Amino acid sequence: MKIGELSRRTGVPTRMLRYYEEQDLLHPERADNGYRSYDEPAVHRVQQIRGLLDSGLTTEIIRRILPFLGKPDEIHLHPECLTPETAALLRGEAARIQQRIDCLARNRDAILAYLAAVLPASEASSPAPAPTPGRSDATSGEPVPAEAPPT
């Protein structure tokens, strides 16, 4: 399939697909005319890349672990294949993500404390507005259901 078809099927802009190629994350074949040609597994690969980027991983880390990913949430990395450099990168990334989580939790707590201080008790304890549909809950990572539209 051509890059436009891959873009349509994955929802990833063609410009971003070219960037993935520049970062050595995608490896399309080239036709005689120079056009990129992607095979069917490229759809799944792009979805994996997108998910890993959305989770906050860098392209450098993704490049190192991508060869060991099969299906989503499935890693085929034998422990002896994990280099000390990659292990250090992953530990550093986990620490960086934890720092972001801690910062978000502090910000949430500060906002709630501010609301509790300035609003009457009945308003301060009322539920927060629903998050944007399709986003995940920052504390649990679970998808947040969208509210039903008003009738």
Summary tags:
disordered C terminus; 6 helices; mainly alpha; two-stranded antiparallel sheet; single chain; 151 residues; 2 strands
Strand order of the largest sheet: 1-2
SS class: mainly alpha
Radius of gyration: 21 Å
Oligomer: single chain
Silhouette: elongated
> Which parts are unreliable, with pLDDT below 50 for 5 consecutive residues or more?
133-151
Can you tell me about this structure?
With 151 residues, this protein is an all-alpha fold. 51% of the residues lie in helices and 3% in strands. It has six helices and two strands. Strands 1-2 form a two-stranded antiparallel ribbon. The longest helix is centred in the C-terminal third of the chain and has 35 residues, at 84-118. The termini are far apart.
